[in-house]
Amino acid sequence: NHRPILDYLESASGKNYENDLRSFRIIADHMKAAVFLIADGVKPGNTDQGYFVRRLIRRSVRYADKLGIETSGFSQIVRPVAEMYKEQYPELTEKITEIESTIAAEEEKFRKTLARGMKELERFIGENDLSAQNAFQLVTTYGFPLELIIEEAGEKGIKQIDIEGFKELLTQHQNLSRAGSEQKFKGGLADTSEKTTRLHTAHHLLLKALQTVLGPGVHQRGSNITQERLRIDFSYDAKMTEEQKKEVERIVNEKIKEDILVVRNEMPKEEAEKLGAEHEFGAKYPDRVSVYSIGPLESAFSIEFCGGPHVEHTGELAGSGVFKIQKEEAVAQGIRRIKAVLE
Fold first, then answer.
1. Which residues are bridge partners to 230 per DSSP?
2. How far apart are CA 218 and CA 338, in angstroms?
């Protein structure tokens, strides 16, 4: 029984449930599930259950937009859900504020991503270039639902989108992601929690900052990332000065402040190598690889072969604190090690 949720949606949208069954039902189903998961301690994120919650909220936001529900009214959907289950699950009522703010924060993050994606979509439509590859990029990078791309393109007079080509890329992507998730603890990551994921993105920023300050001959030679700290081993044959360490910290913190979009792309290995993407010394890569860039590829601050996971915007790292180098030492001839934190 979704009646209290549907009543709330009717009053928030000014629309009638009978006339828009699909949108109402999707929001009611998705948000009910999201509320329970968040109450259980699952936060929206890029991995596992967190990713599922993120998808539920984001799909609901799209349908809430269709119904014309104001941003301020979206997260309040928690209230009728808590009301419906107050006898069986009193904890929903106790956690209303926390659940609402989690949903509102995810909605805001999605709207930011969506606004950037919309610009890309308009560019593709303007150039009459809505290829399968471009549609795929919008879905995987900006979280754009395919039905929204088709709708927007249709309104602008583009009737043909290569759906088959898109599905083929999606299948390749899923296979690559599956292989990546089987390998996920091998990339130096102890786990895929939010803190570890933030430090993983900080690791990419750090490597590029080291190359900027110490020179392009710096390359990663090993890494280890836990929830508490990141560790990177890199090629360099002198002890870093205090000034160099301060400058590296400044660059990393500046890039966090700039709140740059973190983009995942898939491409043939040769193409990634041509882009100068950083890759691990001695590692074997498949013919098609996953590449993360900090910023869009054509103007990226950093590009690396990587299976993820990462944050969506560098600004999210500020949620853990300021980037600081704790220790810099030699581990072997020509190899230095840095331990760093966000605190």
1. 225, 340
2. 13
